[in-house]
Design brief:
Elements (H helix, E strand, L loop, with lengths): L1 H25 L1 H10 L12 E13 L9 E18 L4 E3 L11 H11 L5 H17 L9 E7 L9 H17 L8 H12 L7 H8 L2 E5 L2 H7 L3 E5 L7 E5 L7 H13 L3 H22 L3 H18 L4 H12 L5 E2 L6 E4 L4 H12 L4 E3 L5
Parallel strand pairs: 3-4
Antiparallel strand pairs: 1-2, 2-4, 2-5, 5-6, 7-9, 7-10, 8-9
Helix pairs in contact: 1-2, 4-5, 4-6, 5-6, 6-7, 10-11
């Protein structure tokens, strides 16, 4: 009897040591769910493989939304917001939903607001589809994987539905984590295509390559999606630009005006595929705006860049139905001397301003009156 008690105490002590180790490495928010939902790791804690990867939010500077239509864009990633994925060895393959998946609500009204803003789908399907497409890549390219399973956790603070590429950030972080876990290299120029296929091929969500390229390359990126070029080399032309040449930027968003990007893109795609002449002409114009914006950045011409940013929104406004509240944000920013364009498809705006503190405070006050949060993006 005494021997059994001693064995139980020793086993309990060992489990507690392993949990404490996992907690110190993975973090309390991760290990709480691990402890509640899964058996503790049974192999030596010293050899436990834990991979953490991040992908930053994206903001489009020029060219958006021509990326899905053979156009050109310039985008940046910013460290203000990110998606984080943690993968660690586990006896079976396990996906643990994020605490933000929306399964607990304060009231019926709160649930109704959440569904109206975010729909019925969370990030779980993105992670699951990412794992499936990663496996597809390995099968198609005859990549042998280690015989190891994993548990995967994810979290994100990228504001949802405001055009900062929160969905693709989760997918990019998942791919990066799996690539490191299994020691698989996917060439950088084609990685965005595989990431896009998660939403487009697996989940039927329309979109372009811009978000994925920007998040794979990081920093400030120029992208050319010309159809002939892409067919010839198997991918677009992606070039990193010197972000230090950018003039002062601001970004503003209003989550109450969030609009999932697939709603916007599905309508635009249908019109483009139907041969809408106005849409086709607009995509050519946006490509030209992108080249002019690049020249302005490289030449240090802040005034010209501001003109191109404003012109970009004006083209978008001609061909798409812009939500009144979103347009009000653009006009408010312009009213205090800033340039303004959509950072994506959901209502966040990005633009240039003088860099003076007083002018930034004017932006905060003017846009704040519309319920917007205004930040200075940290390009990373």
């Amino acid at each position: 009897m005494g021997m059994n008690r001693a064995r139980k105490q020793a086993s309990r002590y060992s489990r507690e040591k392993k949990f404490n180790f996992a907690q110190s490495v993975i973090g309390r928010s991760f290990t709480r769910a691990v402890r509640l939902n899964s058996p503790l790791i049974t192999h030596n804690q010293r050899t436990m493989k834990i991979i953490t990867e991040r992908a930053y939010a994206r903001a489009a500077l020029a060219g958006n939304p021509s990326d899905g239509y053979g156009g050109k864009t310039i985008s940046l990633t910013m460290a203000n917001y990110c998606a984080k994925v943690v993968v660690y060895q586990w006896p079976e393959l396990e996906i643990i939903p994020s605490a933000s998946e929306g399964v607990q609500f304060r009231s019926l009204a709160d649930l109704s607001v959440d569904v109206g803003r975010n729909g019925y789908y969370g990030a779980l399907r993105l992670v699951k589809a990412s794992i499936k497409r990663f496996h597809d890549y390995c099968v198609e390219h005859n990549v042998s994987l280690l015989d190891e399973n994993f548990s995967i956790r994810y979290e994100t603070d990228v504001p949802r539905g405001v055009g900062m590429a929160g969905s693709s950030a989760i997918i990019v972080a998942t791919f990066r984590a799996l690539m490191r876990f299994y020691n698989v290299e996917i060439p950088q120029p084609i990685l965005p295509d595989w990431i896009l296929s998660v939403e487009k091929a697996e989940l039927g969500i329309e979109g372009g390559l811009q978000d994925r390229v920007a998040q794979v390359y990081g920093g400030l990126t120029y992208m050319n999606f010309d159809a002939e070029l892409t067919a010839r080399q198997g991918h677009g032309d992606y070039q990193s630009l010197d972000a230090s040449k950018l003039p002062p930027l601001y970004l503003a968003f209003q989550t109450d005006l969030a609009e999932p990007s697939d709603i916007v893109h599905n309508d635009l795609r249908a019109r483009y595929d139907a041969g809408d002449k106005a849409v086709h002409a607009a995509m050519d114009e946006l490509a030209g705006i992108t080249d002019a914006a690049r020249a302005a950045i490289e030449g240090g011409d802040a005034a010209e860049l501001a003109r191109q940013i404003d012109a970009n929104f004006d083209v978008r406004d001609r061909i798409m139905k812009v939500v009144a509240g979103h347009k009000a944000m653009i006009l408010a920013a312009r009213s205090v001397g800033a340039s303004a364009n959509f950072a994506g498809s959901g209502g966040a705006i990005l633009g240039t301003y003088s860099g003076e503190r007083a002018d930034f405070e004017k932006l905060k006050q003017t846009l704040g009156a519309l319920g917007c949060k205004v930040i200075v993006p940290r390009v990373a």
